[in-house]
Specification:
This protein is mainly beta. It contains three helices and 17 strands. The strands form two sheets. It has a 15-stranded mixed beta sheet that branches. The protein has a two-stranded antiparallel sheet with strand order 1-2. Residues 1-35 are annotated as: Disordered.
Length: 294
């Protein structure tokens, strides 16, 4: 019997080892000057520069995280992996249908074609925006106060009921259809319709407001007030009338308190028109000042 050699080497077989690799986490992208960092999580390819540009464009630079669906095609999906902090963005998607099933901050659609979005959950800011898209269908099953549509070819907005509809601001939309299911109403409008009535309109800049007026869907041209706030000529006129009525009521109360109403004398002189400045130098119109007691 041969003795075993203690120095004899024993062959070692290398066995491959596997290490669990974690999913790559999105890199925080610093945007803006506020010092905050925000994650842009995407389905699809998007460079860091594109993410930063997108973050700034949607007005979310120093706020919440963005969940972006980029360049998707032929996708039908329920979106559930979002939180109330997320702004949800769809950009460059074609032949897709998405349903939002969880709370989010805001919804933004850009450059999409043949695209359907169903909003079943609450949007914290109550705002949805669509920009440079074609053949988009939006279904609102929850309250959205402001829908903004800009430079789109065909858009259809379907509301579950009248109480989830407030208004739509739009500019440069070739065809807009609004459908309200309860009570049922269908309304169609377009930029071309208003352009035929007013040749001074500008496709990308002239803005309109579609909303219920006297229980009927109507569209009015938007004007900007001195403070930049969007309004309509009708709303501006009504506001000014209410302001004048309030001033008149206040003046009446002041005159009563001072017990001078019956003794007030109108300055002598030529007849003054109702809309001319009052000769008492108050700076008010005659009809709102001394003319009330003439």
């Amino acid at each position: 019997m041969m003795a075993s050699n203690k120095n004899e080497s024993v062959p070692v077989v290398d066995t491959p080892t596997t290490e669990a690799t974690a999913e790559p986490t999105p890199t925080p992208i610093k945007v803006g000057t506020g010092g905050a960092k925000a994650h842009v999580v995407t389905d699809g390819n998007m460079s860091a520069e594109e993410k930063a540009k997108l973050q700034g464009m949607i007005g979310n630079a120093n706020a919440q995280d963005t969940r972006a669906f980029v360049g998707q095609k032929n996708v039908t999906q329920d979106v559930t992996d979002i939180t109330h902090k997320n702004t949800v963005v769809f950009t460059g998607c074609t032949d897709c249908s998405y349903t939002l099933k969880a709370y989010c901050t805001k919804v933004f659609v850009q450059g999409c074609t043949n695209f359907t979005l169903i909003i079943d959950s609450k949007v914290i800011t109550s705002t949805a925006e669509v920009y440079k898209s074609d053949n988009v269908e939006l279904h609102f099953n929850t309250k959205i106060a402001t829908v903004q549509l800009d430079i789109c070819n065909t858009v259809k907005c379907v509301y579950k009921a009248k109480d989830v509809f407030d208004h739509i601001f739009w500019a440069g939309v070739e065809s807009l259809q609004v459908v309200v299911n309860d009570p049922f109403a269908v309304y169609n409008t377009s930029y071309s319709t208003f352009k035929a009535q007013d040749d001074t309109l500008v496709f990308e800049r002239s803005q309109f407001k579609t909303h219920f007026l006297n229980n009927k869907l109507q569209t009015e041209k938007v004007i900007r007030l001195a403070n930049g706030f969007p309004s309509t000529l009708r709303e501006k006129t009504e506001f000014e009338r209410r302001e004048e009525d309030n001033i008149n009521k206040l003046q009446d109360e002041m005159f009563k308190d001072l017990n001078i109403r019956m003794n007030r004398k109108v300055p002598d002189g030529p007849k003054v028109g109702r809309n001319e400045k009052c000769p008492c130098s108050s700076g008010k119109k005659y009809k709102s000042c001394c003319g009330k007691f003439a």
